Recover the amino acids of this structure.
């Protein structure tokens, strides 16, 4: 009997092995189709989901229809379902097909319009303020260049807000200013694409160095719906921050601690959040090299920032404090406030959230001191920052993802993906009662 | 370390549960607000016999009350460019519509401020200036 049972098990196992590549191919096609639907419909413009933009994707017009909430949400849910299936079948997907799939998703999004966010126009406005108008973007908001062509595309909430990004990012964006508006938008898209490809390459390298499946690692990151549609689709500078973060991890795996710390500092000079990695890295390595490397990079960065923008260019803390006071309807603290019958978060809630974040950080530092993986501890910290933030945007949930795929503590990956699922679920209200 | 890991996992599961409940609760709240919004717009169009789609709604998005004010033009034109009529709606949605409690008119290009309101009507017109 057992021999028969073994035979049946063996044949069903072989059958599932035969089906796995075909199923994976079908799911990959669904991912591509969902992405194409969003991009082609987005190219039609006149959608509340697509920010007003210079006409960069006009050649795609005529294929899709105007992107509505219902179609967008269904496409995102299909994307998420297919993504979950692809991850489950990751072992049966070859390196070549994984790269082809991720490449196709990137190419489709790159060819299309800016999706879901006006942030890229703020980046361009800050660069044009500095280069074309001689105005310090750390002192003034885009309102200072009211007659510049980019001004009409800047988000309403950000017209009076000076840049919160680091001086390294602002300097990186400066060469795009003289390219004109369309040229600058394409420049931003190229920067995001290169940063994404670099992040994926480094994720592959780190996963292999840590003896984890590199194909699964890049699929988790490069086929992630929030990474592709929101992160890459919006050409967010978070991708540049992630590139420098993964460069830092890659350097530590190669034993180059000073370069690793310098890379984290460079990332923080793009977007300050990534600085959260530094204490864990230093505590884990217990050597002087990362401290010296970090200090040297900080000194150089501060000098460059001060020379270019004055004292406001290096005062990252002030920008962080200002942004920490913002509140978005999608943030978990706001949802919890509603759950307890409050209209929203109050100043005391900000203090409680900061205290919770400090406690989590201290616990993770203690765990790292006792030998816990510093990469995982850093990932948990980034996840805690996004979950406790009262200003949560889709691409903030991407911060811990590259770290989560290269750690052996699978709880981090599960928690990061669960937070993303909740974020998407919270967007789906128009599916239940569509607003006419 | 396994004891620490167990405690961490328990805390994580509890935190996850709280976030999931908060998300579902907020989703239901949003759906309720949207449901009311649709009924409000439909009620305004039925009451005024104008099939206009550019209406302004002052809505209680936090669900503390069901009291909402919907304003729109009385003749065709760009939003708020004509004389406007505002309706105060309350109560539950019934048959896709809500109860119009009272209302008022506003001059062209005026926001809904008490000082601009005139020609009050409805069950609470004794209150000045029209507001419930």
């Amino acid at each position: 009997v057992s021999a028969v049972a073994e035979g049946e098990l063996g044949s069903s196992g072989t059958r599932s092995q035969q089906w796995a590549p075909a199923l994976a191919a079908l799911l990959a096609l669904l991912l591509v189709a969902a992405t194409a639907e969003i991009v082609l419909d987005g190219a039609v413009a006149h959608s509340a989901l697509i920010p007003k933009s210079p006409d960069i994707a006009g050649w795609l017009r005529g294929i899709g229809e105007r992107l509505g909430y219902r179609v967008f949400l269904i496409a995102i849910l299909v994307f998420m379902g297919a993504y979950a299936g692809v991850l489950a079948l990751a072992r049966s997907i070859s390196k070549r097909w994984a790269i082809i799939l991720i490449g196709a998703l990137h190419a489709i999004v790159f060819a299309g319009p800016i999706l879901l966010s006006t942030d890229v126009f703020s980046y361009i406005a800050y660069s044009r303020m500095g280069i074309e108008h001689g105005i310090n973007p750390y002192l003034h908001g885009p309102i200072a260049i009211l007659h510049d062509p980019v001004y009409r595309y800047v988000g309403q909430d950000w017209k009076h807000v000076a840049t919160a990004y680091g001086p390294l990012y602002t300097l990186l964006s400066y060469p795009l200013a003289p390219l004109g508006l369309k040229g600058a938008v394409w420049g931003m898209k190229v920067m995001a694409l290169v940063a994404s490809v670099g992040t994926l390459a480094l994720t592959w390298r780190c996963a292999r160095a840590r003896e984890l499946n590199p194909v699964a690692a890049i699929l988790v990151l490069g086929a992630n719906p929030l990474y592709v549609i929101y992160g890459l689709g919006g050409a967010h500078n978070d991708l540049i921050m992630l590139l420098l973060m993964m460069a830092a991890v890659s350097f530590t795996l190669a034993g180059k601690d000073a370069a690793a710390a310098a890379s984290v500092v460079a990332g923080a000079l793009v977007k300050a959040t990534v600085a959260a990695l530094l204490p864990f890295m230093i505590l884990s390595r217990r050597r002087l090299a990362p401290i010296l490397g970090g200090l040297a990079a900080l000194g150089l960065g501060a000098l460059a920032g001060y020379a270019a923008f004055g004292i406001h260019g290096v005062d990252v803390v002030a920008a962080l404090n200002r942004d920490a006071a913002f509140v978005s309807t999608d943030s978990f603290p706001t949802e919890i406030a509603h759950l307890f019958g409050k209209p929203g978060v109050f100043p005391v809630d900000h203090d409680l959230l900061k205290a919770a974040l400090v406690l989590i950080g201290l616990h993770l530092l203690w765990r790292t001191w006792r030998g816990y993986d510093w990469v995982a501890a850093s990932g948990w910290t980034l996840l805690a920052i996004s979950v406790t933030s009262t200003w949560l945007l889709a691409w903030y949930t991407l911060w811990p993802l590259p770290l989560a795929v290269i750690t052996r503590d699978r709880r981090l990956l599960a928690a990061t993906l669960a937070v993303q699922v909740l974020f998407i679920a919270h967007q789906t209200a128009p599916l239940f009662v569509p607003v006419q | 370390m396994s004891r620490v890991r167990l405690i961490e996992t328990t805390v994580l599961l509890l935190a996850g549960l709280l976030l999931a409940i908060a998300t579902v609760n907020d989703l239901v709240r949003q759906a309720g607000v949207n449901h009311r919004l649709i009924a409000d717009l439909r009620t305004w169009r039925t009451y005024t016999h104008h099939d206009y789609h550019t209406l302004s709604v002052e809505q209680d998005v936090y669900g503390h009350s069901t009291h909402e004010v919907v304003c729109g033009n009385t003749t065709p034109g760009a939003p708020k460019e004509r004389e406007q009529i505002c309706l105060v709606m309350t109560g539950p949605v019934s048959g896709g519509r809500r109860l119009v409690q009272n209302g008022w008119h506003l001059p062209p290009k005026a926001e809904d401020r008490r000082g601009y309101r005139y020609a009050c009507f409805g069950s609470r017109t004794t209150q000045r200036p029209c507001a419930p």
About this structure: The two ends of chain B are 62 Å apart (CA to CA).
